[in-house]
Design brief:
Elements lengths: L35 H20 L4 H5 L10 H18 L15 H4 L5 H22 L8 E2 L4 E2 H27 L5
Helix pairs in contact: 1-6, 3-5, 3-6
Organism: Streptomyces pilosus
Protein name: DinB family protein
InterPro entries: DinB/YfiT-like, MST-like
């Protein structure tokens, strides 16, 4: 016998998918966005939604469950890590003093991801606030070549980096979710 959960999916059309294409909120039946900026924002939005989907339906203990020792990675840790990353990215493009870390010391985002409903609620609140603040800081910069902040980071570079970070962590979330309850990713 094994403690590993059986693999499963809610999809009925494609058994290796997270959701059926006709009910997947990331699917857009209309035309793709026009232009590079709109495309980058659309891709980022879909990865953000994917992360949330990977966490749906789990309780605080399941969200905080670590993958395999010695890793401290968990779905809740990823939510907290991405909130911290959004704040860091905003710091990259400001001319002022950087905002302090959300979770204190290095790895505080993962180490503090414990199975407490209040911690889960705070993590989602932090993520939404930090995403909105970074989005707001980038609003009005339609020229993707504009360089911002003390280091002169191009808007395009920051958007692509954000997409890369969410995409990488959505891959982690696939594996973490499958370890928690067997639900497969796509």
């Amino acid at each position: 016998m094994s403690d590993a959960p059986a693999r499963w999916t809610e999809a009925t059309v494609h058994p290796d998918m997270w959701a059926d294409p006709d009910t997947d909120p990331r699917n857009n039946d209309g035309p793709a966005p026009d232009g590079e900026l709109a495309t980058l924002v659309d891709v980022l939005t879909n990865y953000r939604l994917t992360l949330r989907m990977k966490c749906e339906g789990l309780d605080a203990e399941q969200l905080a469950r670590r993958s395999v020792p010695p890793s401290t990675m968990s779905l809740l840790g990823l939510v907290r890590h991405l909130a911290e990353a959004e704040r860091d990215w905003r710091n990259w493009i400001t001319d002022g003093e950087p905002l302090p870390k959300l979770y204190g010391r290095r790895d505080g985002d993962f180490d503090g991801a414990v199975g407490d409903p209040a911690v889960v609620e705070a993590a989602y609140t932090d993520l939404e606030r930090e995403q909105a603040a970074t989005d707001s800081a980038l609003d009005g910069h339609a020229d993707l070549g504009v360089r911002l902040g003390k280091e002169g980071i191009a808007v395009r570079e920051l958007l692509v980096h954000r997409i890369e970070e969410y995409a990488r962590h959505c891959g982690h979330a696939d594996l973490l979710r499958e370890c928690v309850d067997g639900r497969v990713g796509q």
